[in-house]
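Forum > Structural Biology > Help requests

Title: Can anyone predict the 3D structure of DUF1023 domain-containing protein?

Hi all, first post here. I have the sequence for DUF1023 domain-containing protein but no way to get a structure on my laptop. I'd be grateful if someone could post the structure tokens.
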Amino acid sequence: MPATSLIQVQDTPTTADIVPYSPAVTNGVAPLLYGALIDPSAVVQPLSLSSRPVSLSDLSALSGVTLLRELAILPHDQLASYIASNPRVVDNILASPPAPAETSAMWNTMSDPDRLNLETAAPRLVGNLDGIPADVRDTANRAWIPQVQAQLTSRLNSASGRAIAEDARHQIHMLGEIQSALGTSGSIPQRSLLSVDPTGQGKAAIVLGDLAHADYVTYMVPGMFFTVDGQIDDWTDDASRLYDEQVSWLNLIDKVKPGEAKKTVAVVAWMGYQTPDLTNIGSLDLAYQGRDALARTIEGLQAERAGTEPYITVVAHSYGSTAALMALTEYDFQIDALALVGSPGSAAQSVNDLHVRNHNVYVGEAPFDPVPNSAWFGSDPAAPSYGAKKMAVGGGFDAITNEFLAPSFGHNDYFGVGTESMRNMALIGIDHGELVTTGSSSDNRKTLALEQ
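Reply #1:
Sure, ran it for you. Structure tokens for DUF1023 domain-containing protein below:
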């Protein structure tokens, strides 16, 4: 087989069976890297390249998945030494990562020893690349945190400047907050660390549930003033409440629709971009970052779960809704549902502009929230002409559970305990939008239909 192929098959193919790698996507499936078999019936097996010689001097000229592959096949000690001597290598890859589909394809064609080599020698890299399985990323990120904590403590103890010492303290505290939000090994549901970056304002994503097998996956995207250091614990608690609400509804609906209780959910407390404060809230600069990061995250899951893709929902608040709307307008991937609360809008003019299946878009606006209707960043998604569905957040009586639903007030009360807002977002995330309350008299007819 030609040396450029990364796969092997049971029967040795002829030269005509191999085609050069192309970044094009055919029928929605990215081709295997460095070469792909034309015959789809061939049995694909990983091919270890750990014996192939690599020149370290050539690595600086490589990028993307090509560089990742070459790093993975370096001997472990040599790889660890190279990363330690060239820390910008990891920074550069993460700043401009390969497409998630390419990363996923690369990972799937790697041998187990090469995967483990990359994971243990470069845990920060593996832990933050979309397209690599969530459980692998969790293991890598949890291994990396104590390593960087030790480095930061050493920097703090030897720091000669106040700024360096303060930055080290800030990062140490942030990592501690992330560890706190992760809970313990006995936490229910299980929690995993999908990404972590303690520099600057910080970035992180914590998964509640099993992202690799969940039937329903919900991404929660925060808005302005949310920082990892200040709100990762609270945001993860909000995600936990949404998770519990979704499970409770599946169990309840199971009484009239058997089989629902067997379905599983995962909720991602996603803080994968820098949110704005009062100094930059009027700019879209950070929304562009959020747009790209959120798109990569979802594309990564879809690449990993190809063939078993879950029902994907995005719940976005405030400035985060603008970033989400931009991602769903400007990228080609599709999701199944979108819930927007406290949204300042985007350039999208209607649900027709959004890559959301069946126009499954919901909008909630609380009393005394000054952000909705401002159309600060474009069209108001709650406007009748937009075509989105109304999601009530004003509170009231739930005719199904016979419980009082708390109202949401102002801009930051949409995720409160027992709110109508949380109830509706939970139902949207498990594909039961028919039960979402709208504040109209039709709500009672919807609930009676369920009870029958």
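Residues 228-253 form the longest helix (26 residues). Residues 1-51 have pLDDT under 50 and may be disordered.
Shout if anything looks off.
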